[in-house]
Amino acid sequence: MPDKVTISVDAMGGDRAPDVVLDGVADALAADADLSVILCGPADVVEPFAARYERCTAHPAAEVIGMAEHPANAVRKKKDSSIVVGCRLVREGAAQGFFSAGSTGACLAAGTLVMGRVKGVARPALATVIPSPVRPVVMSDIGANADCKPEYLVQFGQMASIYAERIVGIDAPRAALLNIGEEDEKGSQFAQEAHRLLREGLPNFAGNAEGGDVLAATYDVIVTDGFTGNVCLKAIEGTSKVLFGAVKDVMTSTPAAKLGALAVKGGLRRLKEQVSPDTYGGAPILGVKGALLVGHGSSSPLAVRNGVLTAARIVRQDVAGTIARTVSGGAGRARKEVGRHGA
Amino acid sequence: MPDKVTISVDAMGGDRAPDVVLDGVADALAADADLSVILCGPADVVEPFAARYERCTAHPAAEVIGMAEHPANAVRKKKDSSIVVGCRLVREGAAQGFFSAGSTGACLAAGTLVMGRVKGVARPALATVIPSPVRPVVMSDIGANADCKPEYLVQFGQMASIYAERIVGIDAPRAALLNIGEEDEKGSQFAQEAHRLLREGLPNFAGNAEGGDVLAATYDVIVTDGFTGNVCLKAIEGTSKVLFGAVKDVMTSTPAAKLGALAVKGGLRRLKEQVSPDTYGGAPILGVKGALLVGHGSSSPLAVRNGVLTAARIVRQDVAGTIARTVSGGAGRARKEVGRHGA
User: Fold this and answer.
1) What is the ipTM for the molecules in this complex?
2) What is the Cα–Cα distance from B278 to B295, expressed in whole angstroms?
3) Which of A67, A185, B42, B287 is 20 to 30 A from A243, alpha carbon to alpha carbon?
4) A227 and B262: CB-CB below 8 Å?
5) How many A/B residue pairs have CB atoms within 8 Å?
């Protein structure tokens, strides 16, 4: 990865901002010598930090968009918020990508309104890498578009497939529609129509997946509307949390269990780390002009580090450009783009 | 539970029918002295078995509906199938409930077409008890209705709440709408409208739940359309399966881990049993005239036993009658019915 990249970063995003963000940015700068960061936030936060790091500059942004604010309204009103400023830096060319662990809705609104949609993209989509213990799976949409038309899902599939190949490194990803039955004719009217359109328009479409196929990594890319995708993702995360908690209870239930647990503790910790969303550092918003990655509100410094590095990788792998060529060129072009470049 | 109850049972339902079904029926008869069973299936299967058990009679049914057949077509065509015959026995009053581990779609079609809908119920719904390690949760619809109108969800909530109280024994169950945000105004247009109608029409409605709230048992009853419910349920089951498999891999990865695992094996087995769907024996179809319970295709004899006993309990707790009074009486009546009888 030799290319020099500049990422603007929201210093005020996340539950423990700015400290966790600053730690993560410092780690990202240390990990990537060709990375520069423009840190957006209140001057008293960003300026002292930037003064200490060679490849970091400060860009003051006096306002902060809270997690509970109405996203589009807040983006329109708070022109000097760290999220709007960070996206504007991308639009103006000062940075090529933006990372925030703040409000997903506000990032989506700012990505669409400030960075702008890639020409031909009907709706930008929120994707995520699901850290399955089997192998990583890309799912999209996971909540940007609660109400979808079936045709949106073809682009969601195209964009997520590009992300799977270029960023996650999945060679020739197989994409499936999240549905309630494996057979082609199964599902709601919406799912049946989406299936038909995906069959026509997504060259790497492999059929229907069920809820259980997601974490089992039966397919590499899961295509769905933002409502179903969000429910499914949160069901997976919630089940994982409840079960790890219950396994921990078993391990500490008796003195003998505690003793025995010592021998498996390390392995279980590694498994827990493996299925943690921190590894991939965030959820990309695909279909906007530039790299845009949103971290969990509860992001750790490691998650922020990985998020900033992933945003740089999205720039270097030209994900937005590939999406632009794919959606304008139609399905034949998509076939050509996916599978042409290794990740 | 003193009342004598007769349950018709599909001898040919499930992957390992009839053996597993016959074993489960024998166990159910042994467990409940006031239970009688009418076993439906080929004469050479059901007659020898019925001859050996005092409270079991045989009802020949020459045809079998396969798992891959189109449900409604198969039910219309195969009048002498074990599923249609079993449902007809309920309609005719010879039995009060029916259990099958066969095709859910065929049971749903036979329940609707042969038993008939409860007056006032727009759409019968498939519910299930999710065996959370925290406490059981009832979810409905889990796949009977892939396409719903928002108003259906009010009845799904009423019916599932009655089931939660009377069958699962949850006192004053709190019901929530499965949605993609906790705040009242969140979600798709469908979810927003369903939320508004539930707020008006379901006295025990407590707000929106997210995918992670289901297994965490934040609420007792989860109301959703059949598409979202099915995806969510299968995501939970699939995640549980993948994670238990990964934990098992950790436990057998090294000689030391194997040794340590001995001390926690029993506890993990109990946890796995606790979250197994076998405990509740199946998914009820609510809103039909009679008790109707569908078991997993992979049901064990224990699951069949519990399914038959649960069907008898649905009869004794007058679930169908309570549903009839609730939907005809509207919301005020629902408030009166839920909370009046302990389970």
Assistant:
1) 0.92
2) 9
3) A67
4) no
5) 190
For the question of whether the overall pTM of this predicted structure is more than 0.80, the answer is yes
Q: A263–B260: do the CB atoms touch at under 8 Å?
A: yes
Instruction: Give the closest of A232, A240, A259 to B263, CB-based.
Output: A259
Write down the H helix ranges in A202-288: 211-216, 226-251, 255-274
The DSSP string of B155-167 is HHHHHHHHHHHHT
Average pLDDT over residues A241-262: 88
Cross-chain Cβ contact B188/A240 below 8 Å: no
> How do residues B168-187 score in pLDDT, each as one tens digit?
999 999 999 999 988 888 99
> Does B94 contact chain A (CB < 8 Å)?
no
Lateral strand order in the sheet of A175-178: A56-60, A35-41, A5-10, A97-100, A291-294, A283-286, A125-130, A137-140, A221-223, A175-178, A205-209
Q: What is residue A65's predicted lDDT score, i.e. its pLDDT?
A: 96
**B15-34 b/e (C-beta count within 10 Å ≥ 16 → b):** eebbebbbbbbbbbbeebee
CA distances from A86 to A68, A79, A95, A96, A259 (A): 20, 11, 8, 10, 51
B:197-216 residues touching chain A, CB 8 A cutoff: 210-216
Whether the Cβ atoms of residue A208 and residue A183 lie closer than 8 Å to each other: yes
Q: Cα distance from B82 to chain A (closest Cα, Å)? A: 24
User: Token pair for residue A264?
Assistant: 């498996």
Rounded Cα–Cα distance for residues B55 and B294 (Å) = 22
Q: Report d(CA A164, CA A176) in Å as an integer.
A: 13
In this structure, are residues A89 and A98 in contact, taking their beta carbons and an 8 Å threshold?
A: yes
Question: % helix / strand / coil in chain B, to the nearest 5?
Answer: 50, 15, 35
Q: DSSP letter for A115, please.
A: I
Distance from CA of B165 to the nearest CA of A (A): 24
The phi, psi pair for B82, rounded to 5°, reads -60, -35
Cα–Cα dist A342/A329, whole Å: 20
Q: Which of B178, B241, B260 sits opposite A231 (nearest CB)?
A: B178
Q: Report the distance separating Cα A105 and Cα A121, nearest Å.
A: 18
List, as ranges, residues 242-261 from A with C-beta within 8 Å of B: 242-244, 246-247, 250-251, 253-254, 256-257, 259-261
Tokens standing for residue A312: 């740089």
pLDDT score for B2: 57
